[in-house]
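ok new one. same drill as before - structure tokens go in, u give me an amino acid for every spot. 247 of them this time. try not to just spam alanines like last time pls lmao
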């Protein structure tokens, strides 16, 4: 199976992106954050507090500098610093590169408070079964390989497929089932929040880690791979407290 890490690897195949004609996000996009790295990478994150961002561990690898991207009223980008970056201690970058499940989560503390509203973590428990619906919201490309097609937060409703569990969840466009190009994460959507509807409100159940093209080909618009947060919830709470952020 050929996959891309949805945010750090370039994609050139002519498939759909984040995704498959996905519209600009509404309510789901308000807590979503755009991140960029000094090595030309881009990722998505989500505000869990006014001073805390959750993203994928592979989005903030050592050896590079990372910035939060804000926007002026005229939609001009403004780069903002992070005061601290914490990756889960069990994160294994080699596992991500081999497309294996790992603790692909990280917390970032901005140097200044965010203007975004905060999202809530999903409650503990609550198994995921095939057919469950989720909303994914990210800043990724809408045309693979075209960097100018990103930068707008978009959302898509996807459903669980395969054998979802605590280590990994695979999502697919219910209209295409991954057999042809459809909705799904793409370059720049790594770390994007995966929301579940909990009693009428969207709560974060996981983050995007990888994607495929149709029929497990390279690219986007097939499967969206998610790292669920159920095993990492305690670490998130403890690390947030260490960074001085109340969740």
């Amino acid at each position: 199976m050929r996959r891309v890490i949805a945010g750090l690897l370039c994609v050139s195949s002519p498939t759909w992106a984040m995704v498959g004609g996905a519209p600009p996000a509404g309510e789901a996009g308000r807590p979503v954050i755009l991140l960029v790295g000094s090595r030309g990478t881009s990722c998505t994150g989500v505000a869990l507090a006014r001073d805390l961002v959750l993203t994928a561990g592979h989005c903030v690898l050592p050896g590079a500098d990372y910035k939060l991207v804000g926007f002026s009223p005229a939609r001009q980008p403004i780069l903002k610093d992070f005061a601290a970056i914490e990756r889960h201690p069990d994160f294994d970058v080699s596992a991500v590169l081999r497309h294996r499940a790992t603790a692909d989560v990280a917390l970032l503390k901005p140097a200044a408070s965010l203007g975004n509203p905060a999202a809530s973590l999903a409650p503990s428990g609550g198994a995921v079964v095939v057919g469950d619906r989720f909303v994914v919201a990210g800043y990724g490309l809408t045309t693979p390989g075209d960097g100018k097609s990103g930068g707008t937060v978009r959302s898509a409703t996807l459903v669980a497929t395969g054998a979802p569990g605590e280590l990994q969840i695979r999502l697919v466009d219910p209209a295409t089932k991954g057999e042809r190009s459809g909705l799904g994460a793409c370059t720049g959507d790594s770390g994007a929040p995966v929301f579940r509807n909990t009693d009428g409100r969207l709560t974060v159940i996981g983050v995007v880690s990888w994607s495929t093209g149709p029929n497990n080909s390279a690219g986007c618009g097939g499967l969206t791979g998610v790292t669920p947060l159920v095993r990492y919830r305690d670490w998130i709470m403890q690390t947030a407290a260490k960074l001085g952020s109340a969740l």
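The longest strand covers residues 201-211. and btw The two ends are 38 Å apart (CA to CA).
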